[in-house]
């Protein structure tokens, strides 16, 4: 028998059977940061980007990606997501601004939604980059992380680098 949960007795990949797990309310919140130049920040706020406002498009991309996570990540189970919400805020940093993208995904199910939240913020960041690259190709997508998760057999998790959120 394989010592790894995602490999069968022949050593080949398999999807774990979650049918015996209890359905519970679960949430996951992820975050991704995109470092941008002052020039790009100004262009966004002056609404002078040729492609238009990047945030609504990034928001839709994040929601769509959360729903398609099982198609992107081989061992993720397709799940019926109850909700996905994204947030965007700019923070001033040395030499520019940081766009902080957050995503919270909820489900009542027998597996968690951590990967869905992480996929949502990643897709939103990539879409933001695509919408803005004509002005600033030096953007840096950085620090993608799971901020918190609630529910499930293993209980709640709060990333040690973030304050505990209620």
Number of helices: 4
Instruction: Give the number of domains.
Output: 1
Approximate strand percentage: 25-35%
Instruction: Please compute the radius of gyration using only Cα atoms.
Output: 18 Å
Give the uncertain stretches in residue-range form: none
- What would you call the structural class? alpha+beta
Instruction: Give the biggest sheet.
Output: 5 strands, antiparallel
Strand order of the largest sheet: 2-3-1-4-5
CATH architecture descriptor text: 2-Layer Sandwich
Helix percent band? 25-40%
CATH topology, what is it called? Alpha-Beta Plaits
The CATH class turns out to be Alpha Beta
Shape: elongated
Rounded to the nearest angstrom, the distance between the terminal CA atoms is 42 Å
How many strand units? 5
N to C succession of SSEs: EHHHEEHEE
Instruction: Please name the fourth-level CATH homologous superfamily.
Output: Molybdopterin cofactor biosynthesis C (MoaC) domain
Q: What is the mean predicted local confidence, pLDDT?
A: 92
